[in-house]
From TrEMBL:
It comes from Catellatospora bangladeshensis. The keyword Transmembrane helix applies. It is a multi-pass membrane protein. GO terms for cellular component: endomembrane system; membrane. It is found in: Endomembrane system. Keywords: Lipid metabolism, Membrane, Oxidoreductase, Transmembrane, Transmembrane helix. This is C-5 sterol desaturase. InterPro entries: Fatty_acid_hydroxylase, Sterol_desaturase/TMEM195. The chain crosses the membrane at residues 6-23, 82-101, 140-170. Residues 89-220 form the Fatty acid hydroxylase domain.
Length: 283
């Protein structure tokens, strides 16, 4: 099966990202809202720096995860051919896997150590979308079922780029609720503001990438009812990219050193808030 040359969607979109961030920043000057946080120089610089760094790290990690995914694809006898008319179906399949990957990265601490980077800003604007992990190798396992079913990994990667591009515009406070049928099916700024909030009623909600219907189906949806407070339940007081990228891994190592070996699996695989003093806390 000969595949088309899929364009690097995210790389080609960088000029669009820059333009939209500039427009959003200017909008705060002409239409200020005292309740909205807007842009902070250090915070935005950190987010953009994390995004630029992730581009290089993703290439490195992609060598290993790409080989693993390609191995699964080569071993399966199944093959699902690509056709442009079927692209929406591939996008839906990739988005379904993304939902479970995203959910897993919130409820498994070892995975959260990678994803926490994206939630570490107390602002919520388009630059926040660029605050990406430098350990992006943790999610590939959630897409292995697609390879096992015969979906070429290049197709999944292309759909992943479209998914990431879609999610850029939903990181904003400048857009209120949208057309109700659209809000019911698709992820929107309102839904994603809930996802980035640190209030207890909003924690671990709205994992969807393009579609919010997965959250409605699997019980993780929450509407935006009160103004979100962005960031972590325990915020980090730093703009140092290295600390932002690896602070949770350091915290895990500290916990492993002071806990018994028998508690290590729970420390790594249960939720970020788990401790031996709270053994019944659900994942």
């Amino acid at each position: 099966m000969t595949l088309p040359d899929f364009p690097p969607v995210v790389l080609y979109s960088v000029p669009l990202f820059i333009l939209l961030m500039v427009l959003e920043r200017v909008s705060y000057r002409f239409h200020p809202d005292e309740d909205e946080i807007g842009y902070g120089l250090k915070d935005s610089a950190t987010s953009i720096g994390m995004g630029l760094g992730s581009l290089g790290w993703d290439v490195l990690w992609g060598l290993g995860t790409g080989l693993a995914t390609a191995a699964v694809f080569e071993l399966t006898p199944l093959r699902i051919p690509f056709a442009w008319w079927a692209l929406p179906l591939f996008l839906i399949a990739q988005d379904f896997c993304y939902y479970w990957s995203h959910r897993g990265h919130h409820v498994i601490r070892l995975l959260w150590a990678s994803h926490v980077v994206h939630h570490s800003s107390r602002a919520f604007n388009l630059s926040t979308a660029l605050r990406q992990s430098w350990t992006g190798f943790t999610g590939f396992m959630f897409y292995l079922p697609l390879a096992a079913l015969g979906v070429n990994p290049a197709i999944t990667a292309f759909c992943g780029g479209i998914n990431l591009l879609y999610q850029f515009w939903i990181h904003t406070e400048r857009i209120d609720r949208m057309w109700r049928p659209f809000e019911f099916v698709f992820n929107t700024p309102s839904h994603h503001r809930v996802h980035h909030a640190s209030q207890g009623s909003y924690l671990d909600r709205n994992y969807g990438g393009i579609l919010i219907v997965w959250d409605r189906m699997f019980g993780s949806f929450a509407p935006e009812l009160e103004r979100p407070v962005y960031g972590l339940t325990k915020n980090i007081e730093t703009h140092n990219p290295l600390r932002v990228a690896y602070h949770e891994y350091a915290a895990i190592l500290r916990d492993l050193r002071r806990r018994r070996v028998t508690q290590w699996p729970a420390t790594l695989l249960r939720g970020p808030g788990w401790s031996p003093a709270d053994p019944e806390r659900p994942v």
